[in-house]
Amino acid sequence: MKKSATERLSGIIESNEILKDIRRISSSINIDAVNAILLARRADQGRRNGFTVVAAEMRVFAGRLDEISRALLNNIRILVVNVSAQSKYERMSNFYRRLPQLTAGQAGPTVAQVLERAAVLHARRAVEIRRLITEISAMAESARKLCNNSAALYRNARVEVAYLPAYRQELSMVADRIESAMTNSSKKLSSLLNIMREFTGE
User: Fold this and answer.
1) What gap in Å lies between CA 44 and CA 48, rounded to an integer?
2) Are 200 and 47 within 8 A, CB to CB?
3) Domain span at residue 101?
4) 145: three-class secondary structure by DSSP
5) pLDDT per residue over 54-80, tens digit each?
6) Number of domains composing the chain
7) Helical pair 50-102 and 5-43, crossing angle rounded to 10 deg
8) Which residue among 40, 70, 102, 130 is least crowded, i.e. fewest CB within 10 A of its CB?
């Protein structure tokens, strides 16, 4: 059954919260990566080692994830505006469709004209909403693939920890936190994709 604009709006609001969570996760990955770089350099007396290189790549990953999340949030905001307008149209058209039955005289043609103009705007918004959903879904899928492909980073981090025994425990904890953050991001992006599929009724 096709969802109303109001029902779909609640899904979009949930999407907004998911993306805010992902931005918080990318920020925490960046902080963990910076701490890991400092620890690794201290462990290796300031020299650039394998863990430092991996941690620097993690920072690049976190920056890219944050960049995609910001773009997604922007598209979600535009989507909210369009779906809110759709919801308003649905309420208005339901009201006006009942009006001719209650009002005599020239109200009928006026109501028909109002509904016709509103329907044109509604159709344009529907096209824009479909475009946004397609774009949001593509970006979310791209971000999810980025998370999945970056799994090699924390596996490499675990390997590099073995070469820095002085800070093995601390660096292992950092690698664990980053692995957890990447997995969490991937799950949240999957949830976002499911919301977009529900939105389109797929």
Assistant:
1) 8
2) no
3) 5-200
4) helix
5) 888 889 999 999 999 999 999 999 998
6) 1
7) 170
8) 102
Distance of alpha carbon 17 from alpha carbon 29, whole angstroms: 19
φ and ψ at residue 198, rounded to 5 degrees: -65, -35
Q: Determine contact, residues 140/189, Cβ cutoff 8 Å.
A: yes
One-letter amino acid at 131 equals: R
Q: Which amino acid is at 182?
A: M
Give the C-alpha separation, 133 to 192, whole Å. 11
Out of 40-44, 69-73, 110-114, 149-153, least confident range: 110-114
Closest CA to 5 of 76, 89, 128, 62: 89
Rounded CA separation 119/126 (Å): 10
Compute the radius of gyration of the chain from its Cα atoms.
25
Q: Which of 195, 92, 75 is CA-nearest to residue 129?
A: 75
Helix orientation angle between 151-161 and 107-149, rounded to the nearest 10 degrees: 30
Dihedral over alpha carbons 19, 22, 27, 30 (to 10 degrees)? -140
DSSP string, 26-69: HHHHHHHHHHHHHHHHHHTTT---HHHHHHHHHHHHHHHHHHHH
CA dihedral 163, 167, 170, 171 (to 10 degrees): -30
- Please tell me the distance from the alpha carbon of residue 181 to that of residue 187, in angstroms, as a whole number: 10
Q: Are the C-beta atoms of residues 36 and 55 closer than 8 Å to each other?
A: yes
